[in-house]
Amino acid sequence: MKVMPGAIQKRLAWFLMLTILALTGLTARIAWIQLGEGERLSARVQDQLRENRIIQSPRGTIYDRTGRELAVSSMSKSLYANPREIKDADMLAELLAPIIGMKADNIKNRLIAGASFVWLRRTLEPEQAAAVIALIKEHQLTGLGFIEESKRYYPNDGLAAQVLGFVGTDDVGLEGLEMALDKRIKGRELKQAIDTDSYGTPIFSSIFSFIPKKQGQSVYLTIDSTIQYIVERALDKAMEQTEAKAATVIIMNPKTGEILAMANRPNYNPNQFGQYSPEEWKNRAVSVVYEPGSTFKAVIAAAALEEGKVRPDEKFIDKGYVEISGRRIKNWSGDSYGEITFMDIIKDSINTGFVEVGMRVGAAKLTNYVRAFGFGNTTGIELPGEEAGILFDPKEMRDSDIATMSIGQSIAVTPLQLTAAIAAIANDGVLLQPRIIKEYRHEDGTLAESFDPVVVRQAVSSETARTLTMMLEKVVSEGGAKRAAVQGYRFAGKTGTAEKLKPGGQGYLEGRYIASFAGFGPVEDPQVAALIVLDDPAGIYYGGQIAAPVFNDIMTQVMRYLNVRPNDTNQVLPPVKPAAVQPYAAPVPDPGPPPVVPPGQVLMPALAGKTIREAADLLHSLELTFVPVGTGVAIKQSVTANTPVKPGTEIIVYFEPR
Question: Whole-prediction pTM value?
Answer without folding.
Answer: 0.75
